């Protein structure tokens, strides 16, 4: 069992930055690939970024590439999402998720049905 708790979401002006954190319980955090997804009001949940269990490979959605960076610290059981140059269209609830499916290639994890555990989400609001 893995429990995930996101934090760091808040109201920020366009062009600003935020760093989201997702703290995981359990001693097997390093065995999971991790992902960030987001859901805006009235829209479907969408993939944002993912990172393999070792942190050796990452993959970002085209909409955030060059602005967002996913990383992880297995010693702290935490995955991060650094978000720069934020835009109003980034406004959403951001969720982290853990996948027990093994792959050395991060692009495998763009599908949300590969994830076994989900956090409750943290709200990010970007004002124009």
Summarize the entry for a quick read.
The protein is mainly beta and 128 residues long. It has strands at 4-7, 11-13, 18-24, 33-39, 46-51, 58-60, 68-73, 78-83, 92-99, 117-118, 122-127. It is built from no helices and eleven strands.
Derived from helix and strand composition plus strand pairing, the structural class reads: mainly beta
Low-confidence runs of at least 5 consecutive residues: none
Topology as a string of helices (H) and strands (E):
EEEEEEEEEEE
Q: Averaged pLDDT, please? A: 95
Proportion of β residues? over 45%
Largest sheet: 7 strands, mixed
Q: How many β-strand stretches?
A: 11
Kindly report how far apart the N and C termini lie: 40 Å
Shape annotation: globular
Question: What is the helix tally?
Answer: 0
Radius of gyration: 13 Å
Can you give the helix content as a percent range?
Answer: under 10%
Any key phrases for this structure?
7-stranded mixed sheet; mainly beta; 0% helix; 4-stranded antiparallel sheet; globular; 128 residues
Describe the overall structure:
This protein has 128 residues and is an all-beta fold. 0% of the residues lie in helices and 45% in strands. The protein has no helices and eleven strands. Strands 2, 4, 5, 6, 9, 10 and 11 form a seven-stranded mixed sheet that branches. A four-stranded antiparallel sheet has the order 1-3-8-7, with no helix packed on it.
């Amino acid at each position: 069992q893995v429990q995930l708790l996101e934090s760091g979401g808040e109201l920020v002006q366009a062009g600003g930055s935020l760093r989201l954190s997702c703290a995981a319980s359990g001693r097997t955090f390093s065995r999971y690939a991790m992902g960030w997804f987001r859901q805006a009001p009235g829209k479907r949940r969408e993939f944002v970024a993912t990172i393999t269990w070792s942190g050796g490979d990452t993959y970002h959605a085209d909409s955030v590439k060059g602005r967002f960076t996913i990383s992880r610290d297995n010693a702290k059981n935490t995955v991060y999402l650094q978000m720069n140059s934020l835009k109003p269209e980034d406004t959403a609830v951001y969720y982290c998720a853990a996948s027990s499916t093994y792959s050395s290639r991060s692009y495998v994890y763009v599908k949300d049905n590969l994830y076994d555990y989900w956090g409750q989400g943290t709200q990010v609001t970007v004002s124009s």
